[in-house]
Amino acid sequence: MNNEDMKKMAIKASVFALVSITLMLHRSATKHIMITDAAGAPVARGSSESSYTLLVDKNVPQGKENTLIIPLPKSVSSDNIILEDGYIDHELRIYIDSRDEGFYKDNPVVTDLDILESAVCINQNESGSVCLDFKTDQLYVNVSSLTESSTIEVKFYRPSEKYDHIVVVDPGVPENAAESGADSALEKDSILDTALLLKSMADKDQANNVKVYLTRLSDVEAPREKRLELVEDSQADLFVELSSEGASDQEKSGLSAYYNDKYFIRCLNNGQFGDIMLRNCAVKTGTDAVGVMPVQDEEDVLTAVRIPAARINLGNGSLSEDADKLSDEVYKKRLSEGVYSGILEAFEVME
Predict the structure, then answer these.
(1) Could you read off the pLDDT of 148-177 as tens digits, one per residue?
(2) SS3 83
(3) In the β-sheet with 56-57, what is the strand arrangement from edge to edge?
(4) Is residue 27 part of a domain?
């Protein structure tokens, strides 16, 4: 073989390698399924005509034990699938944009899991798009993958099996939010914005492996009992409430923290946790710290939580100084950084 032939072969090999890599990347990309959280957002099951119980085949293939296997119409790709983790209601919802009407009336899901309390197919439209709604007996972390055989495989784990640290964050809704005043609306949105920034920060921090569960992702606040159930179901180590209510001096601008002083937790008591959270938030934002104070209301959610818990009041939206800060995106980001650094410091103390 002369030099010219060797050059041609090398070029062909390079092109083949490039094409192969491109195909591998494309196929890898198609395996990705969009996963979102849906705390406190129940799905509409519709009428009996638009929803039905899924068929379940318990004869699982060898090596696929303890797995939920969901068949897909051949035309469906990852672009047509969205998974919603409705953890507060113990639900996994899988939205499939299909054109194969009635597919799940003939094709069963395959699993030997005994954690499923119900499995329902809800028709989203007349063209075949559906929501597969799986309700489990308790809160699980689900890990899903799209296989070569046109199925979704889902594994379920308890939160403590997947995460080193677990935090429930409760973005409170101001009591006067229902009046739809500008100040209350600003506070409500700012609180949720801060919580979402915090969750995004934790999701990206692989080194510390912290899982943040939010009690709400919309304007609707979860009932008190649901929030307390989430603390227990998630196996949470810490509880943090973000609020703009309860400041001891409504005319004074700044941050404050509240805690339950009725019992003592050996590894990290509530007063100490409140102080850690307030100090970190004040340092990150450069905002005055009003103080750390015990809660007075016996019905306060903090009084029922039996893990280290604290409320951080982000300010008073009725004061122009605090209102300006709460509407500033940079300030909300710094505030979320303060909350997260406080959480990490608390875990250091607990260890």
Answers:
(1) 999 999 999 999 999 999 999 999 876 554
(2) strand
(3) 56-57, 109-110, 68-71, 151-157, 141-146
(4) no
